[in-house]
Write a structure and sequence with these properties.
The protein is mainly α and 224 residues long. It has two domains: 1-127, Alpha Horseshoe (Serine Threonine Protein Phosphatase 5, Tetratricopeptide repeat); 129-218. The protein is built from twelve helices and no strands. Helix 3 (35-54) runs antiparallel to helix 4 and helix 8 crosses helix 9 (146-158). It is elongated. The two termini are 23 Å apart.
Amino acid sequence: MKDCSVLQFAFLTAVVIGGVVFGASSPAAARAASPKQKMDAWQSQFDSARQACDADESADCVSQLSRLANLGYTPAQLFLGGIYIVGKDVPQDYAMAAHWLRKAAEQGDVTSQYWIGYAYSKGQGVPQDYAMAASWFRKAAEQGDNTSKFMIGLYYALGQGVPQDYVQAHKWINLAAAAADDEMRNKIAQERSYIERLMTPEQIAEAQRLANEWKPIQSKAPRP
């Protein structure tokens, strides 16, 4: 599971490894170009932005990323959100991080959906709001994000931000356990066992049925 103590490192690592952006030199050019041309152009520009970031050319790095993010490309928004969380190349600013993460999340980016959910759960850059956190965790879980499966399962178990529902809690925690590594699977299974003690056999059977029938939603958000 993602942990607050390693938030900054985990976020920037995930974004640096996964972030690639397609783009165009201007909004007018973006409208005129084909999707493939836009992808190639924005990819090239993002590569340039990453090189600037890696070379500690802060102004150029942030300028290029901001322009691409303002064009609406989700990985650029995610990357920029990560920079504001970590405080690399810009002053640390959780509100700006949440701004860009939410924009990417609203376009279906699963990583951004988890992190904006996390922000709402902690009140980090946004007012603390468990209902909003649950909503974003649920969206990310529906796309297959394993940490989000676990988080929304806990929220259902606790009735935090959602009505308490042990069947939904068991379903999501069961799905998280199935996709986890051995060490984490054992920890998640302990949570599942605790919830099972609060459920009837019929509820457990229903939760298992729902887990077996579940399939992830495919996001339409641009990905590397």
